[in-house]
Amino acid sequence: MRRLRDWVFTIPFLIAFGFGFAFFDVLGRIVRLFSLRGFEYVMAILQRYLLATFRLCGTRIIVERSAEIRPRTGYAVISNHQSLLDIVMIGGLLFTNFPKYVAKKELSRGIPSISLNLRWGGNALIDRKDRTQAFRAIKEMAAKAQERGVSVVIFPEGTRSRDGRLKEFKRGGTAMMLAAADRLPVIPTAVSGSWRLAEKSMFPVPFGTEVRIRFGDPIERHPDDVDELLVEVEEQIRTALLEWGDEQSAVE
Predict the structure, then answer these.
(1) 190 phi and psi angles, rounded to 5 deg
(2) Based on the number of CB atoms within 10 Å of its own CB, is 4 exposed (0-12), middle (13-18) or buried (19 or more)?
(3) pLDDT at 35
(4) What is the spatial distance between Cα 153 and Cα 176, in angstroms, rounded to a whole number?
(5) Which burial class, exposed, middle or buried, applies to 45 when counting CB atoms under 10 A from its CB (0-12, 13-18, 19+)?
(6) Which residues lie closer than 8 Å to 50 by C-beta, 6 or more apart?
(7) pLDDT in tens, the chain (252 residues)
(8) Which has the closest alpha carbon to 118: 137, 96, 146, 133?
């Protein structure tokens, strides 16, 4: 009965989810001809829309956001990574901070709205087999974001966690991003529970899943602080996951 219930709510969710990608792809293609900032607003609204569609599946998203985070301000967001919803939450909740992402180049084709945004929205498209190209793309994205006063996002684990457990940080790309955007305050970001939504690739989406996201206090930058920052950010994320039970349940 539980699986039947999940499918009953997943079907309208998938219809709404797919409609959003198709509609905003067309709208984004039109708006980007006139304004990059307008295009960024379209993509931000898309992410808020996608976030709202999960309510059709009874998903409860609990947000803890530092009062020190300011709108229309650039930040370097460093987060653990559990599912596609992580990107939707960060983009939708940091609406006017216009987050830019690091993504594998294969995603730049064939996916309505997502591919369009990755190609034209100032994100870093990387070739995982070409370390030099990947670092160059991340560096260029970070430097340009800092110049424009928008935000950058990176997931140091490199790939999504399939069970909620925090994976080892791969420091190379993150260190490069922080060095290139050396004036952007860092927001430690922890996500818990979103992996459960994608456990079956959203076929179906488990009804009533609780997802938490915590945007910590921005950490101001000082020279040569990259190693120290990464240690602090990783510790904050791990502490949040332990508090919420993800790390403990994964270990057990």
Answers:
(1) -115, 135
(2) exposed
(3) 96
(4) 12
(5) middle
(6) 17, 20, 88, 92
(7) 888 899 999 999 999 999 999 999 999 999 999 999 999 999 999 999 999 999 999 999 999 999 999 999 999 999 999 998 899 999 999 999 999 999 889 989 999 999 999 999 999 999 988 989 999 999 999 999 999 999 999 999 988 888 888 998 888 889 999 999 999 999 999 999 999 988 888 889 999 999 999 999 999 998 778 888 999 999 999 999 999 986 544 444
(8) 137
> In angstroms, rounded to a whole number, what is the distance separating the alpha carbons of residues 219 and 241?
20
> Hey, is 156 helix, strand or coil?
coil
**What are the backbone dihedrals phi and psi of residue 192, each rounded to the nearest 5 degrees, phi first?**
-135, 135
Instruction: Give the helix/strand (H/E) hosting 14.
Output: helix 2-31
| Distance in angstroms (rounded) separating the CA atoms of residues 81 and 72 | 24
Relative orientation angle of helices 2-31 and 36-53, to the nearest 10 degrees: 170
Closest CA to 78 of 181, 162, 147: 181
Query: 95: which residues sit within 8 A by CB, 6+ positions away?
Result: 44, 48, 71
* Domains of the chain, first to last: 2-251 (3.40.1130)
